[in-house]
Amino acid sequence: MGTSPRTYIPGSPEAALKYAIQHIQLDHAQLIEGTIHPVSRSWSHEATTDRICTAIGATVARLACVSGRGDLDLPGSCNWYIPDLAVVPEASATGAGALLPQQTLLIVEVTEEFDSDTDRVVKRRRYAEFDAPLYLLVDRQERTCTLFSEPSRLGYAKSDGPHPFGTALHLPAPFDLELDTSDF
Q1: Run of H or E including 79
Q2: Run of H or E residues at 81
Q3: Disulfide engineering: 150 pairs with which of 75, 96, 158, 176, CB 3.0-4.6 Å?
Q4: Do 89 and 75 touch, CB atoms closer than 8 A?
Q5: Residue 110 CB neighbour total at 10 angstroms
Q6: In degrees rounded to 5, what are phi and psi of residue 117?
Q7: Pairing relationship of beta strands 29-32 and 35-38 according to DSSP bridges
């Protein structure tokens, strides 16, 4: 399981930052490369995320998984993410703490105009470094989808895309489904 610093640990800047991010007086906030970022999503962003949830919902249930926007800890770094969507096994979602990217089956980030490079570059690199098996980047500014797989410390070894919106995108095992991107 991921770490969940519920108390401040003197002498540990990482723990102090992660403690602060969990107790900040905002609805949701992320820690990205040591900087606190409030999570603010537009309605069109939420609509895209909702369409993805609907499209993969039956498969997520069949796999005994849950999808949502829970906390992801990246231990040993000053990062604490709240992805737009993550799919995790139900058994992993029962604890109170954050999960690790490697405990997910799929992570989805949908770009917003003000932070698209964070999703395209920073999060893609970090998710690979922390072994998230599949990372789907829905780039609303470029109107493309790209699926990254085969993570390593150096990044994702394989990418499928970018595919223009409207092109079906195959999500591999364990999903094994065609994702319709025409409404993104």
Answers
A1: strand 79-81
A2: strand 79-81
A3: 158
A4: no
A5: 26
A6: -65, -30
A7: antiparallel
Summarised one tens digit per residue, pLDDT across range 127-140 is 999 999 999 999 99
Is residue 158 helix, strand or coil?
A: strand
Residue of 160, 157, 130 lying closest to 145 (CA atoms): 160
Domain ranges of the chain: 40-179
Residues 14 and 180: their CA atoms lie apart, in Å, by: 40
- Predicted structure pTM score: 0.85
Its CATH architecture, for the domain 40-179, is Alpha-Beta Complex (3.90)
Return the exposure string of 166-183: e unless at least 16 CB atoms fall within 10 Å of the residue's CB, then b: eeebebeebbeeebebee
**pLDDT digit string (tens) for 3-48?**
444 555 566 777 766 766 665 655 677 778 877 777 777 888 899 9
Q: How far apart are the C-alpha atoms of 159 and 6, rounded to whole Å?
A: 37
Tell me, what DSSP letter sits at residue 104? -
Q: For residue 138, which of 127, 148, 146 has the smallest C-alpha distance?
A: 146
Distance CA 135, CA 146 (A): 8
Collapsing DSSP to helix, strand or coil, 174 comes out as coil
- Rounded Cα gap, residues 109 and 132, in angstroms: 13
